[in-house]
Amino acid sequence: MVFLNQFTRLINLRDMKSKSLILLLLSFLIVNVSAQRDFSDSDTTKLVILGSGGGPGPSPFHSGCSLAIIVFDTSYIIDFGTGLVRKAAAMAPTYGGHIKGLEIKNIGYAFLTHMHPDHTLGYPDLLLTPWWAFRREKPLEVYGPHGINQMTDYILKAYGQTDNQESLVNTHEYTEEGIIYQDKYVKVEAFPVLHMPNSWGFRFTTPDKVIVISGDTAPSEKVVEYSRGADLLVHEVYIKKGFDIKLANDEARQLWHKSNHTSAYELGELANRINPELLVLYHIGNWGASEQDLIDEINEKYKGRFIIGQDLDVF
Ligand SMILES: [Zn+2]
Ligand SMILES: [Zn+2]
User: Which strands, in side-by-side order, build the sheet including 66-71?
Assistant: First the structure.
């Protein structure tokens, strides 16, 4: 209310009617910013965006990129951006949420697309918090590309936990395309994509859904190949309009980005060929452009349904 009083004074609105109107508008804004959205249509399989952040910038509105696929009450984390453990906690019954599979002490499986910091800065948190805060004793099973073994060893060394390695984590480096993990709930296939050397996308097949995650990539025929019959395609994207303005004078960076990421126009074209049930835009590089610019660029080529992913969206 102090804030409201200052605000109304500022714009010289003292009567009660105007004050209530502004209060109404403010509460609408606040509700909109924090509202959780649930687009899911299955009780068996859900996908939760734990962090929708694009690029390495510390956006106060998006946690670092991370997803969770939950089948019944078992969860599978994909990528470890900053904030993922807290966002998972927000959905867990212990903290008032409704997704049992995201109880922090129960998270058992984690998959990494590539080693870039915006995908791994939350890794120490994911390794240590369940054990430290909840006395979890079962090790986390981590599947990552070459480098994950060494990164894990360094993290445990840094925190003086090498003696506890066995109860903390088992790492599995995958090096080849195809099935990298399978249990009674999921089959996980990895496929190489077009990003720094050694970057991968994933296709998760659950009892009732096929979910494809592009990872970071330029437009990739492998994504098309592995997306056949996909219910959900979760794809990275950048907004061309912002990119063209921001990098107008930096040809080298332009070239690097174009060969490592997918513009909204390119994604629209790709998605039109794939024709998933639903396209989810994720890890969005906006380069200062607006959400409307993104929608316009996608719509130029894509005729299907798509949603711009936000933190804690459920699909
Ligand atoms: Zn990234
Ligand atoms: Zn990357």
Answer: 45-51, 66-71, 74-78, 109-111, 140-144, 169-173
Task: Tell me how crowded residue 140 is: count the other CB atoms within 10 A of its CB.
Answer: 22
Q: Which of 195, 192, 274, 260 is nearest to 230 (CA)?
A: 274
Which helix H or strand E contains 111, and what residues bound it? strand 109-111
Q: What is the pLDDT of residue 7?
A: 42
Q: What are the backbone dihedrals phi and psi of residue 93, each rounded to the nearest 5 degrees, phi first?
A: -55, -35
Say which ligand is closest to the CA of 285.
1
In CATH, the number for domain 38-308 is 3.60.15.10
What is the C-alpha separation between 295 and 60, in angstroms, rounded? Answer: 22
Give the whole-angstrom CA distance, residue 288 versus residue 245: 9
Q: How does DSSP classify residue 206?
A: -
pTM of this structure: 0.89
Condensed to tens digits (0 to 9), the pLDDT of residues 260-276 reads 999 999 999 999 999 99
CA 261 to ligand 1 center in whole angstroms: 9
In the reported structure, the alpha carbon of residue 17 is separated from the centroid of ligand 1 by a whole-number distance in angstroms of 47
Which distant-in-sequence residues (6+ apart) come within 8 Å of 314 by Cβ?
Answer: 36, 37, 38, 39, 40, 46, 47, 48, 91, 99
Q: Which two tokens stand for residue 108?
A: 């058992």
**Phi, psi values for residue 303, rounded to 5°:** -105, -5
* 143 CA to centre of ligand 2 in angstroms: 17
So where are the chain's domains?
38-308
Which single residue is written with the structure tokens 């599978």? 76
Residue for token digits 């670092």? Answer: 64
Length of the chain: 315
Spacing, Cα 79 to ligand 1 middle (Å): 9
Q: Ligand 2 centroid vs 16 CA: distance in angstroms?
A: 52
Distance 286 CA to ligand 1 centre (A): 13
Residue 25's pLDDT is 52
Question: Which long-range contacts (C-beta less than 8 Å, at least 24 apart) are formed by 56-64?
Answer: 56/117, 56/118, 58/82, 61/33, 61/311, 62/310, 62/311, 63/87, 63/311, 64/118, 64/119, 64/121, 64/122
